[in-house]
UniProtKB/TrEMBL annotation:
Localization annotation: Cell envelope
Domain Periplasmic binding protein: 66-306
Keyword Signal: yes
Location of the region described as Disordered in the Swiss-Prot/TrEMBL record: 34-55
Name of the protein this chain belongs to: Periplasmic binding protein domain-containing protein
UniProt record similarity statement: Belongs to the bacterial solute-binding protein 2 family.
Transmembrane regions: none
Stretch forming the signal peptide: 1-38
Family matches, as SUPFAM superfamilies: Periplasmic binding protein-like I
Gene3D superfamilies found in the cross-reference section: 3.40.50.2300
Gene Ontology cellular component list: outer membrane-bounded periplasmic space
GO molecular function terms listed in the Swiss-Prot or TrEMBL record: carbohydrate binding
Domain of life: Bacteria
Length: 341
């Protein structure tokens, strides 16, 4: 190789090396810019940094989740997605018993979390713990349950549906559809959201008879047997209104056992309910968008903690009711496959 050629080769290698260094630097800057300089989350929503570029905050989400109820999986997924985006460490816990749920709130207070998102299925039992959190300077938002009580308890924001309004909407549709005898099944006696739903159905339904049946969702074989017996005893029942997707699934079995012609309609959805609506075993469902409730509860706390924002202008932010039936179930099914509806 001639000396001129050697100089050219050397110059080329230097330029390539410089370009490689500059390229690496650009990539490093871009990576830091997209994550706020923090490591990426692993996608679990368990507290890794997200895309918000804000300091890490810890939020406790405390619910009255009933074990095995897939409705709560949707709420949790929404919360985890918001936590991932907002660089929030999410501490999720639940207990269907109100005193135990209140104890979980106290635990969150003692651990000095930055915010609390909770459900108020039994507001009277939760009120003292909520007051302690607020007195400790911890922002508290409610979702899913407690529509009639959150504001008087001093809770900052609420995300969910007006359960009485949702029930009334369901009752009006049943009247329009010409139903004559409605059985409303409450799976947890004393749970204010469930009782409000049936009260709303009674208000909205003017087409005939109405009756409430109390069952215990902690004993699903008993639920099936009780509904079967009721449908056998009263063949005039032409509509069963359930207040949760798992109860609707069981009602379908009870209807078959009893040889009943009653239509099954329900509040709330899950992936297993989709084919039941598609094949007509369940006529329709009222959707309150649980994924959205979980997402908004966490995201609203982030907005408040990082920018002083609140949502709703002092009023509840309604996520429902909306009907899912044969007209739109196929579109919803696509999202149900990914576990978000």
């Amino acid at each position: 190789m001639h000396s001129t050629e050697r100089r050219r080769a050397t110059r080329t290698r230097r330029l390539v090396g410089i370009a490689a260094v500059m390229s690496s630097a650009v990539l490093m800057v871009a990576a830091c810019s997209s994550t706020g300089g923090a490591p990426e989350d692993n996608g679990s929503g368990d507290g890794g940094a997200g895309n918000a570029g804000t300091p890490t905050k810890t939020v406790a989400m405390i619910t009255h989740e009933v074990p095995g109820d897939s409705f709560w999986d949707l709420i949790r997924k929404g919360a985890e997605m918001a936590a991932k985006k907002d660089n929030i460490k999410l501490q999720y816990s639940s207990d269907p018993e109100a005193p135990n749920q209140a104890n979980l709130v106290q635990t969150a207070i003692d651990s000095k979390v930055d915010g609390i998102a909770l459900t108020l299925a039994k507001p009277d039992a939760m009120a003292p713990a909520v007051k302690k959190a607020i007195d400790a300077g911890i922002p508290v938002v409610a979702f899913n349950s407690g529509y009639d009580n959150w504001k008087q308890m001093g809770v900052q924001q609420y995300f969910g549906q007006d359960e009485t309004l949702a029930g009334k909407t369901a009752g009006e549709r049943l009247t329009k559809d010409g139903r004559k005898k409605v059985l409303c099944v409450i799976q947890e006696q004393g749970q204010i959201a469930l009782e409000s739903r049936c009260a709303g159905v009674k208000q909205g339904f003017t087409g005939g008879g109405f009756e409430i049946l109390n069952v215990n969702s902690k004993d699903m074989p008993s639920v099936e047997a009780t509904m079967t017996a009721k449908l056998q005893q009263d063949p005039s029942i032409d509509t069963v209104v359930t207040l949760g997707a798992p109860i609707a699934q069981t009602a379908v079995q009870s209807k078959g056992n009893a040889g009943s012609n009653a239509e099954i309609v329900t509040f709330d959805t899950n992936a297993a309910l989709v084919p039941l609506i598609q094949n007509g075993d369940v006529k329709w469902a009222i959707d309150q968008q649980p994924y959205l409730q979980g997402y908004l509860a966490i995201d609203s706390l982030w907005l408040y903690m990082t920018n002083g924002n609140t949502i709703g202008g002092g009023q509840a932010v309604l996520t429902g009711p909306a009907f899912i039936d044969e007209s739109n179930i196929d579109a919803v099914a696509e999202y149900a496959k990914s576990g978000t509806r």
